[in-house]
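Note to self: the last two entries modelled the partners one at a time, which told us nothing about the interface. This time every component goes in together.
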Amino acid sequence: MKKYDAIVVGSGHAGVEASLALARLGNKTLLTTLNLDSISFLACNPSIGGTAKGQLVSEIDALGGEMGKAADRNILQLRMLNTGKGVAVHSLRAQVDKHAYHADIKNVLEKQENLDIIQCEVVEILVENNKVLGVKTAFGETIFAKTVVICTGVYLESRIIIGEYTKDQGPNGFVNSHGLSKSLEKLGFEILRFKTGTPARVHNLSIDYSKFECQKGDEGIQTFSFLTKKQPKNVAVCYLGYTNEKTHEIIRKNLSRAPMYSGFIKGVGPRYCPSIEDKVVRFADKTRHQIFLEPEDKDGNEIYVQGFSSSMPYDVQEEMYKSVQGFENVKILRNAYAIEYDCISSLALLPTLESKKVENLFFAGQINGTSGYEEAAAQGIIAGINASNKLNKKEPLILRRDQAYIGVLIDDLVTKGTNEPYRMMTSRAEYRLLLRQDNADIRLTQIGRNVGLVDNYRYKVFQKKLKDIEKVKQEIETKLDVKIVKNLLIEKNEGYSSLPLTAKELLKRNNINIFDIKEKFGLFENINNNVLSYVETEIKYEGYLKRQEILISQMKKNEEIKLDKDFDYNNVKGLRIEARQKLNNFKPLTLGQASRISGVSPADISVLTVYITLLNKINKKG
Amino acid sequence: MIDDTIVAISTPSGKSGIGVVRMSGKNSLNFATKMFCPLNKNIEIKPNLMVLGNIDLGSTTDLGFMVYFKAPKSYTGEDIVEFQCHGGLVVTQKIIEKALSLGVRLAEPGEFSKRAFINGKMSLDQAEGVIDTINAETESELKASSSLQKGKLTKVVNELQNDLTDIMSEIEVNLDYPEHDIEYKTKENIKQEILEINKKIKHLLKTEKQGKLIKNGVDIAIVGKTNVGKSSLLNAILGQEQAIVTEIEGTTRDVVVGSIEYNGLKFNFLDTAGIRKTDDKVENIGIKKAKQVLKDSDIVLLVLDGSKELDLQDKENLDMTKNKKRIIILNKCDLPSIVNLNEEYVKVSAKKNIFIDELKEKIYNLALDGCNTNESLILTNARHIEILNSAILMVEKILTSIIDLPLDCVALDIREFYEKLGEITGETTNEKVIDKIFSKFCLGK
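The predicted structure of the combined assembly is written out below.
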């Protein structure tokens, strides 16, 4: 009889982070996968990061996760998006070699102590007295575990759709999972049906690149992982092109054959990731849509055509693709398809990602209704940490909305839920100025250290950075040579009626950056550029950061007031009926969470505050 | 645990001799001293000591008391400052406005009791009472602005928020989808649109004055020299014996107030001590007060005795009130009239109750002069006014940040502006902006 501390079901980006966290924290862990070849498979874009997603990857890295390091190791091209719009929204995006990425992580898993991997299909979750016991596999084997983390991605009862053709299978021709969804439904989980899609892959040698605009990577920028020392080389380029009226005409002509419009697809698709037919219908006045050509790997010839996802029949796809300038002779290697799959309502989860109904059963990734590799991995590491903390009777890790995008993501999922695949966006984060790509380590490394995932090496690197920051902060207070200051101001078109005396004052000027100061005054010896940029941001954004911090300190108070999950809100006289019902259904963990539930008013929160104070006082007395 | 400072009027609304405004919180003494000037400059403010001085009301001052209660020996268990001022809504409201302008926050319903309870100033069995207070005050605040007006205001502010959502979605799509071929709005476009919204808020705030009329009533001062029949006139209007009427000069020494409702509008009549020169010390205080009442009133009824020649005092009164909205009344029209005036006037007889209803109609029309009560939206709620005033300050901030700062900062300023308006409508940003982004722009891979 096999027995583990933890079983992680599914080896996508969530399952990988969850199983690594569990194993690294010393728990005997089993990772099950439908197919070893699908470990960390980048089933859609061969790219990691992007707005808000780049931040997520760096946060995972700071906590001691794998995604950032693995991405850095397999980069084809690295770019910093949004430069010029403010540091808060600077976001890293990388094209990665999808095959190398898969092989790399598979290798990491295989070498990980405390971790077993097995290819098998889990079809049932075994539960006794609302506590998880283990899982049952399609082979008929029962495997016991104290805790189970479900990370099944888009594989539950999934089917792919290409025009009139449909087949029960997972992405990329992998087998799907049949039965587990029913088991979850029986346990009382609400099952939703979501949809997503992917464009065709085309042959590199069949493209006339002269019709496209080349896009190169950026040199000398930050990486995802704070441990990556060697700047990755840009070894590939992407291309930008457009659809045209002819393409749109072909789509309109064939709309009756589009499963999206014939009612054949029932799942809810994401608005931010529409298929080309969706774009043409909804934005009929646009005469062209962008497409990006992204290499799938370093040496291969498959090209991913971003912006051109579709569930049109194969013959229409061919016609559509060929209508694009530069695609006249294009050869489709794999067709675009839509995929429908089962997921659960994330409202069934606690902020630890443990389910409310079944103890020790955790969920992470697309099963929770999200979309994206980074969102999945972020949930994976948190589910893994919390599963481990529960096993080892430690405090759960719940990141607040002001601490990390991960906190925003999970809080949104468990308090608001989602009715379409959820994508992280910077605009979802109300404390965006604090949640930056460049300070993810400052925000989260200590937390990762306390959890136990940050090893000595990472911790040493982090402490050195803190020391360097202190050093720079002292140095910018020293008085500068007035003459040079004046010359610099003139050179940078800044007023000099009042002369800044220190580097700090000088930095407050819009047109002057810390590297100007480094150069002119010979300051900051042996300090790396990331540290300098960090200090610069802290100074230039000082006023705004302070404002956000005031809001946070107000918000935190309610976040710190804990609510008992067995609390019956019907007993609270003075709460409105609607609030009682909502709170009883929801059972928030903190007063802060309660305040974010729709239908709970500020007056309800006041009443609740008084009631809780009362209970605490009675308890103290008793 | 709770570190911001809150303020509220403690005395019940309506007419009363004195009013009390209370501030609670760590910084209340600091705030209070910024708006209070003791008469005795050398006096040291000590806990539990009543200090006489001038309370700053912005454009004017009110002579009153300030008392400081030091934490934890206070109602809430925090530092409390109480201002005891003249009664009625005008003075107390102005104290509140002054405090808000310094950065104090208007207390939420039941918040003083809530703080008292949390800080252990109440016994456990009082918890239910506190909860009742929170609910009762929430209720009464809802009622304070009529539901009709609230609905109208919510609608208008909702429209402003929709405009803002538009702007925000433009900025956010630029930040979240940097690589799409979308024509992003220029900063200049955004600035113009913000200015447009600002204009609308300013227009709303103009109605604040009218709102006060409707909520608190029209304050009408009755002015005239002694014995022209001011008190009789008041009684005739009120239809009851409100003021003391005697034949002895100078008996009405206090500002006696009577109110009537006429066509849905409240008239508050302020009877004044006869304005005349006198050596009587007590009466001199009355005269000073009368002049203040005159200044604060919305409308002046200048009463003249139509049966006697106008003397110097009458002419002085005519001159003193010429810049106010006023109605000149020739009283005693039951007697032969010998007064000739070049200005518009009405004739009444207070004693015989002649033309009193006509007078009321005239007052009503004059009060509503320039404000159309049926059509326009009128702000009556102090909280709403506070919110809109702070929103205006935020616009000023946006207008500078938009020129100098990167888009992520501008976005924050606009978001805070939106959320300020949301305190009226209850609308928060997130989902709306995201919905807008996806409905308006073609995005995705």
